[in-house]
Write a structure and sequence with these properties.
This protein is mainly alpha-helical and about 180 residues long. It is built from eight helices and three strands; from the N terminus they run ααβααββαααα. The chain has helices at about 10-30, 40-50, 55-60, 65-80, 100-125, 130-145, 145-155, 160-170, and strands at about 55, 80-85, 95. Strands 1-3-2 form a three-stranded antiparallel beta sheet. A hairpin with a 6-residue loop joins β2 and β3. α2 (about 40-50) crosses α5 and α3 packs across α4 (about 65-80). The longest helix has 27 residues, at about 100-125. The protein is globular, with a radius of gyration of 21 Å.
C-alpha cells in the first residue's frame, strides 16, 4: 500500500493552518508569555468581555462542544490562565480569568485585531481571497458535509466494515477478546 500522506489534498491545508497558527504563537513567545496558545485567545477574550461563564456558556458563545471546551479549559487552567469555581449546581463550573490572563487581555485584543488586519492584507494580495475560499467551502459543505463526503469515499473499503462492527461491539461491551488481536 502506498503512503496516502505523500500525495494529499489535506496535508497542504493542514500545514498552512499550522504555519499561520505557529506565527501567531511566536507573538507570545517573543513576549515571553508561557502557556498561552493561539487556540485559547478567543475563549479568554470572551471571558473578559462577557464575564465568568460556565463551560456550557463558553462552548455556546464560541461554537464548540462542551467536551472540547472542557478539555481546553483544563489546558488553560494548567497554564494559569483561568480558574474554575463551582457553578449554580454541582454539575457546572464557572470559568474566570486569573490575574495573569487579566494582564494579557489588552495584548490579546490587540493581537486579534492585528491578526485580522494581516489577514485582510493577505486577502488583498491574493487573486482569490482566503475569506472567499472559506465562504465557498462553507457553502459546499452545506450541500454535503465533510463527514458525509468522507463516509462516501470509505464505503466499500475492504476491512473497514469488520473494524466498525468490532468497534460497535466493544463500545456495547460485547467483546471481551477478539481472536488474534492482542495475542
Amino acid at each position: 500500500m502506498d503512503d496516502p500522506t505523500e500525495k494529499s489534498h489535506w496535508r497542504p491545508l493542514y500545514e498552512l493552518l499550522a504555519r499561520l497558527d505557529a506565527d501567531v504563537a511566536r507573538i507570545y513567545t517573543d513576549r515571553r508569555i508561557d502557556g498561552l496558545k493561539p487556540t485559547y485567545v478567543r475563549e479568554l477574550l470572551q471571558l473578559h468581555y462577557k464575564g465568568p461563564l460556565t463551560i456550557t456558556e463558553l462552548a455556546e458563545v464560541t461554537g464548540r462542544t462542551h467536551s472540547a471546551l472542557s478539555q481546553k479549559v483544563a489546558g488553560m487552567r494548567t497554564a494559569g490562565l483561568v480558574r474554575t469555581v463551582p457553578g449554580a449546581d454541582a454539575r457546572s463550573k464557572r470559568v474566570t480569568l486569573t490575574a495573569k490572563s487579566k494582564k494579557l487581555v489588552e495584548l490579546l485584543a490587540a493581537e486579534w485585531s492585528a491578526t485580522d488586519a494581516a489577514l485582510a492584507e493577505l486577502d488583498a494580495e491574493l487573486p482569490y481571497p482566503l475569506t472567499q475560499v472559506v465562504r465557498d467551502v462553507e457553502a459546499a459543505l452545506e450541500r454535503q458535509s465533510f463527514h458525509d463526503r468522507i463516509t462516501a469515499k470509505l464505503a466499500g473499503v475492504a476491512g473497514l466494515e469488520d473494524a466498525a462492527k468490532l468497534d460497535g461491539a466493544a463500545e456495547a461491551g460485547g467483546i471481551a477478546k477478539v481472536e488474534g488481536v492482542g495475542e
